[in-house]
Design brief:
Blueprint: H1 4-24, E1 32-35, E2 41-46, E3 52-57, E4 61-66, E5 72-78, E6 85-88, E7 94-98, E8 102-106, E9 111-116, E10 123-128, E11 134-139, E12 143-148, E13 154-159, E14 164-169, E15 175-180, E16 183-188, E17 194-199, E18 207-210, E19 216-220, E20 226-230, E21 236-240, E22 247-252, E23 258-263, E24 267-272, E25 277-283, E26 289-294, E27 300-305, E28 309-314
Antiparallel strand pairs: 1-28, 2-3, 3-4, 4-5, 6-7, 7-8, 8-9, 10-11, 11-12, 12-13, 14-15, 15-16, 16-17, 18-19, 19-20, 20-21, 22-23, 23-24, 24-25, 26-27, 27-28
Length: about 325
């Protein structure tokens, strides 16, 4: 039989242990929230030094923010339609923003250097090549166009049977991967001939991620799994899932070991690619996630949502 003092100590010990466990299991919270678009945010990207974040929204705006504090830094002005892609150059001097056309801005003074206009449909995806010399844009007009970033001149058109949904360069810049309908294609960046293709299933591919290291690609077709592919052959390399909600956005960490998954239910999850398991759940939104991005230093993750905000989180160490 416990004495009163001993019993009280035991109760306190149990309560302390429970509280400690609760604190340890406390879900992560974002360290910054970017609020100011007033409409769904479709795209988000970090600068190469991880200090700035660019965002684009359905109300035709491009904004630049301090990545640590969430304070607004610049506004790149209005565009002709919803902004679907943003990306900084590796040196951080310029910013690509895609809408009905694509624009290249100088970050220091927000001046538009070039407007890339040749598509007959809305631009759905756009990206700089790793050396910043080229820009690739994909459109509802079923074409990918390759542009010289210094002059803004169109260089090549890659034809597809369906509207483009995503694209991405390999880390060495030697290949470009594109998705339209259920098919992923690989193109040789030396002569722009198609190298290979693969079908991801009956549904349209909605998201593509190219691993910076490790030679992997990931695709999502709007369901609750992610398909992994060998980047050199486009042969299947595994699958991640099941995932609790339909996948809407994906990106690899800089070292290629992790993948962040944006979901239709407003959550984002980080998975260990090799272990094929979820290691972190980020619940900061109630509406669909449109884009996720790791910072180049691997320390942060940005999550863009239909709720008009972007949350920034500490990435797993």
């Amino acid at each position: 039989m416990f004495r009163p003092i001993a019993l009280a100590a035991l109760i306190l010990a149990v309560l302390w242990s429970a509280e400690g466990a609760a604190l340890q299991d406390k879900p992560p919270i974002p360290f910054a929230t970017l609020a100011g678009h007033g409409a769904a945010v479709l795209t988000v990207a970090f600068s190469a030094d991880s200090k700035l974040v660019a965002t684009g929204s359905t109300n035709n705006q491009v904004k630049v923010w301090n990545a640590r504090t969430g304070d607004p830094v610049d506004d790149m002005g209005g565009h002709e339609g919803a902004v679907t892609s943003v990306q900084f150059t590796r040196n951080g001097k310029n910013l690509l923003a895609a809408s009905w056309g694509a624009k290249l801005f100088r970050v220091s003074d927000c001046r538009c250097l070039h407007t890339l206009e040749a598509h007959t449909g809305f631009i759905t995806c756009a990206q700089y090549s790793p050396d910043d010399r080229l820009v690739a844009t994909g459109s509802h007009d079923s074409t990918v166009k390759i542009w010289d970033s210094a002059s803004g001149a169109e260089q090549r058109t890659l034809m597809h049977p369906d509207s483009l949904t995503a694209l991405g360069f390999s880390s060495d810049g030697k290949s470009l991967f594109t998705t339209s309908g259920p098919t992923i294609r690989s193109w040789d960046a030396a002569d722009w001939k198609q190298q290979s293709s693969a079908s991801a299933g009956p549904g349209e591919i909605v998201a593509l991620a190219v691993a910076p290291k490790g030679g992997l690609l990931a695709t999502a077709s709007g369901g609750r799994t992610i398909s992994l592919w060998d980047a050199s052959t486009l042969k299947p390399a595994g699958e991640l899932g099941p995932i609790e909600s339909n996948v809407t956005a994906i990106c690899f960490s800089p070292n290629g070991l992790l993948i962040c998954i944006g979901r239709e239910d407003g959550a984002a999850a980080i998975w260990d690619v090799a272990a094929k398991k979820q290691i972190m759940l980020l619940r900061g939104h109630e509406e669909r996630i449109h884009c996720v991005a790791f910072s180049p230093d691997g320390k942060s993750v940005a999550v863009a949502s239909s709720d008009s905000t972007v949350t920034i989180w500490e990435a797993p160490k």
